[in-house]
Amino acid sequence: MTVKVAIIGCGRVSGHHLRSIAKVEGGEIVAVCDLLADKARAYSEQFGCRWFTSYHAMLTEMPEIDVVAVVTPSGMHHEHCMEVMRRYRKHIIMEKPTFMRPSQMIEAYDEAARLGVEIFPVFQNRHNRAVQRVKSSLDNGELGDIRIMNVRLRWCRPQRYYDMAPWRGTFSHDGGALSNQGIHHVDLLRYLGGEVEAVSATMRTLGATIEVEDAVVATYTYPSGAIGSLEVTTAARPDDFEASLSIVGSKGLAQLGGWAVNELQVFTPDPEACQTASQVIPDAYGFGHVTVYENIVAHLTGRRPFDVNREDCLNSLRLWHSFYCSDERGGAWVKLADKPESARLGRPDEAISGLYRTPAP
C-alpha cells in the first residue's frame, strides 16, 4: 500500500514536508494546494504532483488521497482540519502547534474518532539523534534523576518578520515567541522531563509592534521536586544567538543546542556522544519530519501505532497554554492539573480568518 499525501498551504515549511515525504518508502505526494496559484504551481513543478487553489476541488477530484497535511496559519488549523475530516473523511497531519487551543484539539479528536479517521500531530524534534540520546540516558538512569532543567532561546525576529503576513504576531492565529519559536522546546520539557506540575511566567513585548509577546521568562516545577527555568525571546538583536535545553541530573549534565536541538553540546556521562549524537542540519527544520512521515506510513499500513497519541498531544498543548495563563494572572502559579486554557490564544478574528478561508462549493 502506498499512502497518498496532499498538502494544504504552500509556505516555506511545506517545502520541507514535501522533501521529507519524497524520502519515505510507501509515501507519495500527489497534490498541493494554496490560495495563491504561483505558490502551488511552483511546488507542483518541483515535486511532480497536481496543484490546486481550492482544497475542496482537490479532494473532490482526487478521492484517492489518503491523508492531508494542514500547513496553514496556526489559527486556521482547527477550521481546516474539521472541514477536511467532515466533508472528505481524510486523515490529517497537523503541523505545530497542532491546534491553538486544547479545547479545539479535544473537539477535533472526538470528531476524528466518530468519523473513523486519524490525526497525526507533528513533534519532529523528538526524533533528533541528540534528543534521543538524552532521552535514553534519562530512561536508563545514566544521567540520574533530573534536578534542574533549563530552556534558553535568544533569537531575532525584527518588525519586518511580523509584517510579512496579517496572521503573524496575533493571538488569534499565531501567538508569540513561545508559540512559534519556543513551542518545540516546551514539548521537550514533557518529553524528556515528564509531566510538569506548575508554571509561573511573565511575558513582555519589547522589540516589535505586535500584540503578542516577544519575550517570556518562567519557572516551573515537576512532581519529583525538580525545578526549571525558561527564557524565550525573539527580541535579541541583531541575530539569532542561542537555542538550548540543559538538564542537571544527579549523575551528570546534558545540554542540547543548535537550530533544532540537533546538537548534543555537553554530555558528561559520555563526552564522545557529543560527536556521535549531533547532526549537521541544512535549516531550522532538521530531519525529524522524515521520521514523522515514516511513522505515519507505518501506522496507516498496520505495522505499528503512531508514536504521539491523543493524551500526549493534549498535555503538550496544556503545558504551552499554562505559560500564557500564568502571565494573564500576573505571574501566579498555574497548576497543570487544572487543565489551563489561555483566554488570548486562538481567540476568534474573522477578519483574519477570512483571508485564509477557502469557500465551500
3D structure, described in words:
The model has no long low-confidence stretch (mean pLDDT 97). Helix 1 (12-22) links the parallel strand 1 and strand 2 (27-33). With 361 residues, this protein is α/β, with parallel strands linked by helices. It folds into 2 domains: 3-124 and 349-353, NAD(P)-binding Rossmann-like Domain (Rossmann fold), CATH 3.40.50; 128-285 and 308-338, Dihydrodipicolinate Reductase, domain 2 (2-Layer Sandwich), CATH 3.30.360. It has helices spanning 12-22, 37-47, 55-61, 77-88, 102-115, 129-139, 159-162, 177-180, 183-193, 273-276, 288-300, 310-328, 350-353, and strands at residues 3-8, 27-33, 50-52, 67-70, 91-94, 119-121, 146-154, 198-204, 215-221, 227-233, 242-249, 252-257, 263-267, 334-335.
Topology record:
Blueprint: E1 3-8, H1 12-22, E2 27-33, H2 37-47, E3 50-52, H3 55-61, E4 67-70, H4 77-88, E5 91-94, H5 102-115, E6 119-121, H6 129-139, E7 146-154, H7 159-162, H8 177-180, H9 183-193, E8 198-204, E9 215-221, E10 227-233, E11 242-249, E12 252-257, E13 263-267, H10 273-276, H11 288-300, H12 310-328, E14 334-335, H13 350-353
Parallel strand pairs: 1-2, 1-4, 2-3, 4-5, 5-6, 7-10
Antiparallel strand pairs: 7-11, 8-9, 8-14, 9-10, 11-12, 12-13
Helix pairs in contact: 1-11, 4-5, 5-12, 9-12
